[in-house]
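Exercise 7.
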Amino acid sequence: MIIRKMAGVAVAALILTGCAATHFTATKDDMSSFPRDNTDCRFMTRELWVAPLIAAPIAAYAAQKRAEQNFKACMEARGYTMQAVEQ
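Solution. The predicted structure, written as tokens, is:
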């Protein structure tokens, strides 16, 4: 019974964090390196929030927000102007 409740909390946390994701648009004079830069930055930040999703679903929201901030910082360090898109 407890396992079912914990599984329910985990699923709810995953759903909430999925809905709360911030999406960005990236602009730069030369966008030719965008696919590689986007993939590199997403890969580097993905590892920061996947582990908390598995270990502690309640902390997933905060971990995802940190990952989004790190992704934005990574792209800005590569010369992109990042703007959040309202959804």
